[in-house]
Amino acid sequence: MISPPVDFALLLASGLAGFWLFFRSLSFFEKL
Amino acid sequence: MTSELLGVAGIFLSALALAVPLGAYLARVYHGERTWLDFLAPVERGLFRLAGIDPRQPMTWPQHLRALLAINVGWLIWAMVLLCTQSHLPLNPDGNASMAPDLAFNTAISFLVNCNLQHYSGESGLTYLTQVVVIQFLQFMTAATGMAAAAVTFNALQPGRSSGELGNFWDYFVKSVTRVLLPLSLVLATVLVFQGTPMNLEGKASIVTLQGDSVQVSRGPAAAMIGIKQLGTNGGGWFGVNSAHPLENPTYLTNALENIGILLIPMAMVLALGFYLRRPRFGWMTLGVMTAGYLMLQLPALWLETHGNPALARMGVDQSLGALEGKEMRLGTAASALWAVTTTVTSNGSVNAMHDSLMPVSGMAAMLGMMTNAFYGGVGVGWLNFFIFVIVAVFVAGLMVGRTPELLGKKIEAGEVKIAILIALLHPLLILVGTALAAHLYTRHPAELNGWLANPGFHGFSEMLYEYTSSAANNGSGFEGLGDNTPWWNVSTGVVLLLARYLPIIGPVAIAGRLALKKAVPDSAGTLRTDTATFALMVFFVIWIIAALAFFPALTLGPLAEHFGLRAG
């Protein structure tokens, strides 16, 4: 862990990246 | 002991009996038919008008899922910001600190995905504001999310339909809250208040115990949260020790009602499916398979917990009341064993005893409940998990008899089977990879990480396996000997929680949505009937082969090795 504000930003960004992946997976499941 | 066993049988049968009318009611709610709670319609219309939503606008399955994911993104930001700033916000009479970012990440995701894994203790880790507007709020929202996703599949599987318009996500979502979760929670919370659970905004009370010690007793608006915690298969406790705390679960009556609350909606949802499709036998087949799986896990746990610990018996300790370590005397071993399996098969995760102290094979039964994750399962998502196994079973049965697989008049083709297999294998992948990484780290750095495990060896391995199983099943219970409030556990289980929630919702909704678009095939002599005992048996074995056998090697290293070690003395 680095510093609280940086940790917060990194972790929130990783959570949002997860959701980006889920949004992208919709077209994957549509085409499969 | 006989009265204890009669008690647990009564609890289970009461849940089953109540699930039947609730299932019929849920089918009416999702069909948009008249119900006795229609007087709430103006409230719902007001909410829709406020949000600019037309609840009659039909959505396709990708539109449903985009709506579901979008609102979940908003809740993630909301939860993380509030948890990291709670010490500066009102309603904090005990002066509790804000969460560290890694703990806030874990907690926010944990409650966002209906898991409620808690790497903090409610008394000191949260304020009353965050307990209510983050924790309790998400307990309602995530339960409704799962129910709405299940309702989309109900709509998609209607026999004879061949259109992609599957109702409106917001309509299903809001009605799940207003017509089901809120009224039922209100009833349970009211009983809890009368039985002694706190419902106030006071800080800790100072009391002097009978032996003269001064202790601080936490309070707060707990009863309102405990109702939805059980009914929404959330499980996160107001107090650190969850429903083993005398204020969170004060009496045998509250224990019975909370236990019924855990089972009620997951059981009712599968019956609702049958009623909704006008094929009640399909609902009963699903409930039958789930109940058979549940009893296969429950009965050994009941036997083992009520017969005591052989290692303690060899030391001359009386075991006539069963294996009491980690259990509440006032509830007894049978009620604790019932809860342990009930809470793990249903993705609830609340506890009334410490699972770390269960007999090894009972602990394995709890783990298997989460590894299969389809014997009742979470509200709404239990059916979605089961649906994946139904698709696999239909496919395997089709191969066996040499016919194109069909489900409810729709052909199951390669795309649907690929999605089903991907989702079915994701669960063991997340659990086994997570556990392997943690075990590798621990064995490489035993001195630095010695705070992780209270019991190294077989039991320590079980503690790590349980943690990832609980995360992947979105369950939330834990073998609490694990020192889990560390960056590794907070972040790694956070990632598992996210992946294990949304993909297993997206997959089944996608399959159902794809099926809805297909032309219906009329039943013929060659149609595989999916509401028969033969098909039920097929699904049952598919679940055990795919879900349970994948974990057999890991279970031999943990609970099974511990069991044989204990028996050998």
Question: What topology emerges from the helices and strands here?
Answer:
The complex is a heterodimer of chains A (32) and B (569).
Chain A: H1 4-31
Chain B: H1 2-31, H2 41-51, H3 61-85, H4 101-112, H5 122-125, H6 128-156, H7 169-195, E1 205-208, E2 214-217, H8 222-231, H9 252-276, H10 280-306, H11 310-314, H12 332-345, H13 360-372, H14 381-401, E3 406-407, E4 410-411, H15 414-444, H16 458-472, H17 487-517, H18 533-548, H19 552-568
Antiparallel strand pairs in B: 1-2, 3-4
Helix pairs in contact in B: 1-9, 1-12, 3-4, 3-6, 3-17, 4-17, 6-7, 6-8, 6-17, 7-8, 7-9, 8-9, 9-10, 9-12, 10-12, 10-13, 10-18, 12-13, 13-16, 13-19, 14-15, 14-17, 14-18, 15-16, 15-17, 16-17, 16-19
How is this structure best described in words?
The complex is a heterodimer of chains A (32) and B (569). With 32 residues, chain A is mainly α. Chain A has one helix at 4-31. Chain B has a two-stranded antiparallel sheet with strand order 1-2. Chain B contains 19 helices and four strands. The A-B interface holds A 1, 4, 7-8, 11-12, 14-16, 18-19, 22-23, 25-27, 29-30, 32 and B 62, 65-66, 69, 72-73, 76-77, 80, 84, 100-102, 104-105, 108-109, 415, 418-419, 487, 491, 494-495, 498-499, 502-503, 506-507, 510.
In short:
Chain A has 32 residues and is mainly alpha-helical.
Spell out the key features of this protein.
heterodimer; A: 32 residues; mainly alpha; 1 helix; 88% helix; rod-shaped; B: 569 residues; two-stranded antiparallel ribbon; 4 strands; 64% helix; globular
Strand percentage of chain B: under 5%
> Over the alpha carbons, how many angstroms does the gyration radius of chain B reach?
23 Å
Neighbour order of strands in the largest sheet of chain B: 1-2
- Please report the distance between the alpha carbons of the first and last residues of chain B: 26 Å
What's the order of the H and E elements of chain B?
HHHHHHHEEHHHHHHHEEHHHHH
List the secondary-structure elements of chain A in sequence, H or E. H
Largest sheet of chain B: 2 strands, antiparallel
What is the helical fraction of chain B, as a range of percent? 55-70%
User: What is the helix tally of chain B?
Assistant: 19
Helical amount of chain A: over 70%
Question: Given the C-alpha coordinates, what overall shape of chain B results?
Answer: globular
